[in-house]
Fold these 2 entries.
Entry 1:
Amino acid sequence: MKHFDTVIIGAGPGGYEAAIELGKAGVKTLLIDKTKERIGGTCLNEGCISTKNYLESAGYMAKASYFQECGLDMSIRGFDLQRLREKTIALKNELRSGVVWQLDGAKVEMMYGTASFVDAHTLDVSGESVSFDTCIIATGAKVRETPALPLDGKKIVSSNEMFELEVLPKSIAIVGGGAIGCEFATFFNAFGVEVTLIARGPQLLSGEDEDISKTLLRAFKKSGINVMTSSSVQKAEVTQQEVTLTVEGEAVEEIKCELVLCAIGRDPYTQLLSLQNAQVECDRRGFVVVNDAFQTSQKHIYAIGDCIDTPAYAHTAYTEAQIAAGNVVSGSANSNTHVNPSTIFTHPQIASCGIKEKEAQEQGRAVEIKKAFFKVNAKSKILGDDSGFAKVIVCAQSGVILGASIIGVEATEIIHELLVAVEKELLYTDLKEMIHAHPSVSEIVRYL
Ligand SMILES: Cc1cc2nc3c(=O)[nH]c(=O)nc-3n(C[C@H](O)[C@H](O)[C@H](O)COP(=O)(O)OP(=O)(O)OC[C@H]3O[C@@H](n4cnc5c(N)ncnc54)[C@H](O)[C@@H]3O)c2cc1C
């Protein structure tokens, strides 16, 4: 049986980042995933990279009319989804090679198969045994399913199958008002697909500030998306031509569409691991239970990324990987003290960090809200989209910036300045006094 200092299960952003860190530190490291194509995990294969590449084309489509007004003599004769699909596959392959190159450079060994624990120091990988001193579980999350919408991979699909579509449907119903549902609504709407977005809660993006969600809702409605909030799908009837959804909201309605995307959430992917054999604890939702240093109930087994109950972002997985790998190497118990940004690539984009306005109210904190609209920002107008606003939440006593939310053009880029402000506890006056280049979208801060 082969023995390693550290074995990592799952080659997504969490797993490969930890493996590269450990390999570079001279730790004899094995990284396991089901197949070579899984290197990069959900993020690379059916998550961040694919969605953002699709959305970039949608963004150009949305901006086209503005640049036509600016004199650009172009006509859009159509959109070939098959070509976008092929370009995205090429991009993923290129990025995967980059990860493999880094893993090779760090002398990380790879093994392909499904890993499960035999005991607290041994794994079975599709019939082969490996033993380890320490292990990092980075198995991510998988699509959540519901009996009301049985996935068939053809008419009722999850986000995984979206990137296999070769032609656009005429109409789509997207079930789920979270980031994934809203991003796909943006994509299909930009290309003229009739979109119905069905959200269970009273607002889209329940984790974001209420006025951000309301602004997105207005923007979606203005661009022709049929948004149904406080609604849930009771059943789906599939025929050769279409799907009929029975949706219960204020009334019971029938929605007919060519395709249904079920985007009701993702669950930790821990079922295949036989965690009980290693006495590693899970909570009732299936998340691996960890302490602040990412150690499970077995101190030599760590867990990071989407399989633990922290924000489900690739950037969060990267940070947790670096901290957990550092703890493995040094035997320390460092925790993640960084502020996590949330980024949603809808049109308009949304980004936030730190405390939300409602949270501050619930905690009874005395805060001041500083808000500026992109209507006053020259660069956003030059970019063809001056919708939305930025706001910061400032402690009324100390003047420290506690949180920030943005909805508008380039929100996912300009959030980083506010992230520094929140993480480093800068004062509102520090931020205001800084010189911001003109004309830039970041200049919105001058107006806060
Ligand atoms: C549609 C979509 C869009 C997204 N967009 C963004 C975005 O824009 N920005 C962002 O930050 N995040 C985004 N995310 C979330 C992001 O993809 C995840 O947070 C990130 O991939 C989590 O990384 P991870 O390493 O924890 O797990 P994963 O990336 O899920 O990787 C886990 C790996 O473990 C493997 N595995 C599981 N079980 C086993 C086993 N028993 N044996 C062997 N291998 C196993 C899986 O095959 C998988 O490759 C998006 C997700 C989706 C679905």
Entry 2:
Amino acid sequence: MNLESLAQGIRLTVLLYQEDSYLKEASCGIVRSEPDDRKSGYVVLDRSAFHPKSGGQPSDRGKISADGVVFDVRRVMMSAGVVIHWGKYVQGVPGVGPAHMEIDWGLRHRLMRKHTAAHLYDHCLSTVLGNHVETTDSWVGDDGYIGYRGRLPSKEQLQAAEVMENQMIANGARVASALMTREEAFLTMPDAPNMARLPSNTNLRVVTIEGCHGIPCGGTHLSDAREIGRFLLKAPKDLTEGFKVYFDISP
Ligand SMILES: [Zn+2]
């Protein structure tokens, strides 16, 4: 079954993870349920706390339950604004109607910590280099990295950015978000590291870490950078037209 046909005729999912990244469980309605095979299938909800795999952030996992039904969510995807949950039938088969969802909070919180840490490194590296950096991609799952354009900075510069980030984490920095149009975003933050990669003609969610420029991003973030713990720089990789900074965070 392809994702486009699963999303067809379904209203855009209310993205609860964008309204509140700390939402661990909530009631919801199942609006579509399609089997994949005898033991697994796809479920679409009217609103979802599950973050799909996108923007370098792996998908959430968790559970959707209803009367006599337990559905183990293993993968979450987005198609045309509709969040689609793929998982295993643990008990019964989900049908259209009221349900309850619960995300794997341990996994999500770690992803939020790594995602926020990656934004903060963009800021610190820009500051150390004295010019704005441009990102190409990122991944905050296992073997997490941030991809940048340009020449690989020196080891000392990369480490100076790491030291700066850990100082900012230790001091604490509040993280806030607001919605704006692409034009407004471009006017207020033309140097955002991911500006060239943003979708057009949609409203953008702009995330601001205290002490840093705003950055358009639809992912999940901490409310305070202090929760990152410690940023751990790993060996970088020099690419032909850019470089990757591998990193991790404290357990
Ligand atoms: Zn983000």
